[in-house]
# Entry
Amino acid sequence: MAAYANIIIDISHEKLDRPFQYRVPEAMKKQLRPGMQVLVPFGNGNRATRGYVIEVTDEAEFDQERMKEITAIDMEGIPVEARLIALAAWIKENYGGTMNQALKTVLPVRQKTRQKEKKRVALAVSRKAGQEQLLQLQKKHNTARARLLEALLDTPEIPYEVVTGKLNITSAVIRAMEKMGLVMVEKEQVYRNPISFVTEEERNGKDRHFTLNREQQQIVNTITEDYKKAHYNTFLLYGVTGSGKTAVYIELIARAVAEGRQAIVLIPEIALTYQTLMRFYQRFGERVSVLHSKMSAGERYDQFLRAKNGQLDVMIGPRSALFTPFSNLGYIIIDEEHEASYKSETIPRYHARETAIERARQEGASVVLGSATPSLESYYKARQGEYQLLELTARIEEKPLPTCEIIDLREELKQGNRSILSERLQELMEDRLKKGQQTMLFLNRRGISGFVSCRECGHVLRCPHCDVSLSQHNNARMVCHYCGYQEPAVKICPSCGSKYLSAFKAGTQKIEQIVKERFPHARVLRMDLDTTRMKDGYERILSAFANREADILIGTQMIVKGHDFPDVTLVGILAADLSLHTSDYHGAERTFQLLTQAAGRAGRGREKGQVVIQTYSPGHYSIEQAAAQNYQDFYEQEIQYRSLLKYPPVWHMMVMLVASRDQMYAELCSDLLGKKIEQAREQGKLEGLVMVGPADAAVAKISDVYRKVLYFKHKDYRTLVHIKDVLEEFTGRHREFESVTIQFDFNPMNGF
Ligand code: ADP
Ligand code: ZN
Ligand code: ZN
# Structure
């Protein structure tokens, strides 16, 4: 019985992307389970290679005589939950990539790390026997042993480090007494706790005791009723920032937890962990944990174990927390569901929202998507009846939304103001400083400046290895953000010799400098990739600002989302249109979302908020509708545009990237693939398909690798999956493809 195992070899290569069958040795039969990591002989040299068991079966798929045997179960490797193997298969099928890559995706913590232990020395005999022994030891002048025994007669259990420290007893003495049977050393496993930085005051919370308002209550009821009936729908909770969505999540989860079920709460990025974690901690205490990439391997492993062992009810974290091994999942909550970070940028390029819905379907859980600015995708699906739309229409305690002003930067320049801060914004900042209120300045860029161009001939300094412009940093070096290439900043145009070279746009450091010059007495904090590189970097800056240690917070995207700072009454958006100019079709949506979210940071406390949007395109509908805080009108306009151009969510899209160090092969292969599909279409097989390309990718070269793309659009997602399968099979059969790599991206969030 169960004599064979189908195993995915831990090598990601299209040619190996199928299960290999091995014999299960007699001694292993009782132990071996699907999901386990094993070592098997593989390849010509029969080298010991890691693999994942995906199935244990009685059916031999080929000649038993030639079949090799599993060498060992890898006890250091964490097994994939059997349930998550099915999810991995779904990911592979729907997003491309190999089964090995998919298995690794659903197993974000793969290796066991050493457990931390607490040791204690305890008395191993009765008090009476101990006292007798003590007399003996004293007689023999065994002072060290006597000292320990005496202490243990006083306190029967003493931490090991106290024994070796304060009592000054060596481990040799402890071992000797263990041998005599007088004492024992007890070990207790302790989990590393990622919440240790939290202060007592924060843990207890200040004002978290409230009852849900009527709207919140209704939403909780709707979702719980559906949940009780085991329909397990997907809900889209649309509510402006501060309308009480998080409070709804907490209430739903509390009810599920009361029934012995668990919940996963996804947040878009690590920067948001801190505040979210506090809110949940105040409700669920030690039964909440977090899982994210800035934690150490040991910390992550421990949280994984705690979840698996039933010691946790709620796991909070970015994308990969979706694969937390809970055994009785009740809810998956996706907060700020519109965020692009829910889409993986590495293979498999899965979307956490869709994958969550699939996991919930497989395990009988419900999904709640929350946002103040739902993705076009989700809102469209809600309109189509695929998701159930629920709305929170007002801010808690009827706090009014902030007022927004649009400042035309072109006019500003005409008036002679060359500063990045408009006159109006400066005036309002001055006012807030006087009143002792806080200001946030938002810029969606990083570094001290963007690209550098020549004002006389227009020459732009580019990376020699990638098809992108270099950015100037304040250490006077030019850096490529794709490959890391650096060179000293030049003073003279390499093309025409002109001296008038200049950095095009200011970054956060530059703005910090300008703000400090303009308001020398203001206390300024900056939050961007540079200042948050350290562990807990986000938390430190956020809690400093929350504790009013600064008047002004300057930052990139990461400051605009989710944070709740009651004393912020002014938000300045410095260059609203930067996000409009991207190489993909999300420009308007992203701009609307960013501006709306940024604006939502103002006036979350007692005072009404004010927002200044500075822009070069004041007439663009995404900017106008964001200023008006009008999601509906924005949606109507944007969905028309998507429909007209056959873009998602109305159509589905798949990009195929063909990359090679050899330019000729990149071109040849992308042409072959294009022709293959063209042929199928001429035979009338792929009706309704739109194919664009092959063409150069938006960035045609990265690190000397040439990149070609093919775009496919169709109303039916399955057709695109079918095309992917056809093309994968085709590339597997033709030698030309050996020097190229192929990647697929479904409904991409970024341009290539
Ligand atoms: P969102 O997640 O939509 O931004 P939150 O759930 O964070 O909104 O709520 C905003 C603020 O209002 C929070 O400080 C929260 O504690 C508070 N709050 C939420 N619901 C209520 C309620 N029913 N009564 C009083 N305060 C509430
Ligand atoms: Zn020039
Ligand atoms: Zn480069």
